[in-house]
Write a structure and sequence with these properties.
single chain; alpha+beta; about 60% helix; about 20% strand
Length: about 220
C-alpha cells in the first residue's frame, strides 16, 4: 500500500512538472510571438519613415529646380521676371512646406491610408479618430529619439509640441509630428492631461475643470 502511495505521489509530481514545463513553454512562445510582432511593426514604421523622407527630399529638389529655372529664365529673357513671379513662390513652398505638395504614387497611397487630413489611431482596442474629437490645446512633452538613444546608449530626446484631443467618451489623445511629418498618437489619462493644461494652457484648464484656489 505504501509503495502504491509513493508511485501515485511520484506520478503526481511528474504530472505537475510536465504542466510547469508546458506553461513555461507556452509563456515563451507567447513572448516570442509578441516580440516578433513588435519587430514587424517597427520595421513597417521604419519603412514608412524612409519612404516619407524620400518623398520630401524629392519635393525639396523640385523646389530647388523651380528656383534655378526662375533664375535662368530671368537671364534668358533679358530681365523679364514673369516666370520668376510664379516659380520663386512655388519653389520656396516646395522647399519649406511640411505638407505633401507633389502628387505622385506615394501621395495617393498616403491619402488612401490616412483619409486625407484625418488622423485615426487604434490604441488598446479603442479607436481614436480626431475627426470626432475636440482639439483642446497645444502643449509640449518630452519625446525620446530612439535612433540617437540606441547609438549613444542613453536617453536622448527633446521637448516637442503636441496637440491634446478629447473624445466624447472623455478619453484623451496626444498627437505630434516628427520624421518628415509622420504623425504619432499617444493615449493619456485625464490626470496627465490636467497637468499638461496647467503648464501650457491654464485658461483651458480653468474652463474645463474650474479655477485652482488662490495661494
Amino acid at each position: 500500500m505504501a509503495i502504491q502511495s509513493i508511485r501515485v505521489e511520484a506520478s503526481t509530481q511528474a504530472a505537475i512538472r510536465g504542466l510547469d514545463r508546458a506553461h513555461d513553454e507556452a509563456v515563451y512562445i507567447i513572448g516570442f510571438i509578441d516580440g516578433v510582432e513588435r519587430i514587424k511593426k517597427r520595421n513597417r514604421e521604419l519603412q514608412e519613415m524612409r519612404r516619407r523622407k524620400r518623398y520630401f527630399i524629392k519635393q525639396r529638389l523640385f523646389g530647388l529646380a523651380a528656383l534655378i529655372i526662375a533664375a535662368l529664365s530671368a537671364r534668358v529673357l533679358d530681365g523679364d521676371a514673369t516666370v520668376a513671379l510664379v516659380m520663386v513662390p512655388l519653389g520656396l513652398s516646395l522647399i519649406t512646406s511640411r505638407q505633401m505638395l507633389i502628387i505622385n504614387k506615394y501621395y495617393w497611397e498616403h491619402e488612401d491610408r490616412t483619409g486625407g487630413e484625418k488622423m485615426r489611431f487604434i490604441i488598446n482596442d479603442l479607436v481614436y479618430d480626431t475627426d470626432k474629437m475636440e482639439e483642446i490645446a497645444t502643449v509640449r512633452k518630452w519625446v525620446k529619439n530612439i535612433t540617437a538613444s540606441a547609438i549613444f546608449g542613453k536617453e536622448i530626446g527633446k521637448q516637442m509640441p503636441h496637440i491634446l484631443w478629447k473624445s466624447n467618451a472623455g478619453r484623451y489623445l496626444l498627437t505630434h509630428e516628427e520624421d518628415f511629418s509622420v504623425t504619432y498618437g499617444q493615449a493619456i489619462e485625464e490626470q496627465e492631461a490636467k497637468e499638461l493644461l496647467k503648464q501650457y494652457s491654464y485658461k483651458k484648464y480653468a474652463e474645463m475643470f474650474g479655477e485652482l484656489p488662490e495661494a
